[in-house]
Design brief:
The chain is an alpha+beta fold. It is built from 3 helices and 10 strands. The chain has a 5-stranded antiparallel β-sheet, with helices on one face. The protein has a 5-stranded mixed β-sheet with strand order 6-7-8-9-10. The chain is elongated and about 80 Å long.
Length: 208
């Protein structure tokens, strides 16, 4: 038998603002519940509340770098015997005003983070092609490219932060390796640093 949360969600879905909402069963919280889903990715979870005879509805976001606070995560509770129309009204008036405003910001932040990660990975790969023997020794949270000469203590690491911010560390490096790395790093800087007078992006270099 379907859970009361799913029955309410199934009744509420065709009444939801803007249309397109569907309901599906869920046990994500360890108890029989439901999820109201929209084709654009928005999700409302519906599950039994701690108070007997009540259900709790809450917004859900994908993993994101956006700084979500409790104010971005509204919830509401209602008696289960009030039916699907009451759930739709509670979601529309208490959850969607905040959710509809915040959800696009979350998607934008996620896309920005994805592009940033791709850019860092591309720069790390470019460094590897310019410095034979270099390798990526870490990919997250920011790539680190390292060059070390076998049989010696020479080592150069470049932490690729993106947006023109990179940290290059030299340890016991001879002239030949230094020249190769400096040339490669200079090439990367020319590819990423804005032209003089362009204040669209800040730059920073740290050398140790």
């Amino acid at each position: 038998m379907p859970s009361i949360a799913y029955q309410l969600a199934a009744e509420a879905a065709p009444l939801m603002q803007g249309g397109g909402w569907t309901a599906r069963p869920s046990t994500a919280f360890g108890t029989p519940g439901a999820v109201l889903e929209h084709p654009d990715g928005r999700c409302i979870t519906v599950r039994p509340a701690r108070r007997e005879g009540y259900v709790r509805a809450a917004v859900a976001y994908p993993d994101t770098s956006y700084d979500l606070t409790e104010a971005h995560r509204p919830t509401t509770e209602m008696r289960a015997d009030r039916g699907g129309p009451a759930l739709e009204h509670a979601v529309r008036t208490k959850l969607l005003p905040v959710y509809n405003e915040t959800y696009p910001l979350v998607l934008a932040a996620t896309e920005k983070a994805r592009r940033h990660a791709e850019s860092r990975a591309a720069l790390a790969g470019h460094l590897m092609t310019l410095v034979p023997g270099a390798e990526v020794i870490r990919t997250e949270p920011s790539p680190i490219v390292e060059y070390s000469r076998r049989g010696t203590t020479e080592r150069v690491t470049a932490q690729v932060l993106g947006d023109g911010h990179n940290i290059v560390t030299f340890r016991y490096v001879g002239d030949e390796a230094t020249a190769a790395v400096v040339k490669a790093y200079g090439d990367v800087r020319r590819r990423t640093v804005p032209a003089p007078g362009d204040r669209s992006a800040g730059t920073r270099e740290d050398g140790r």
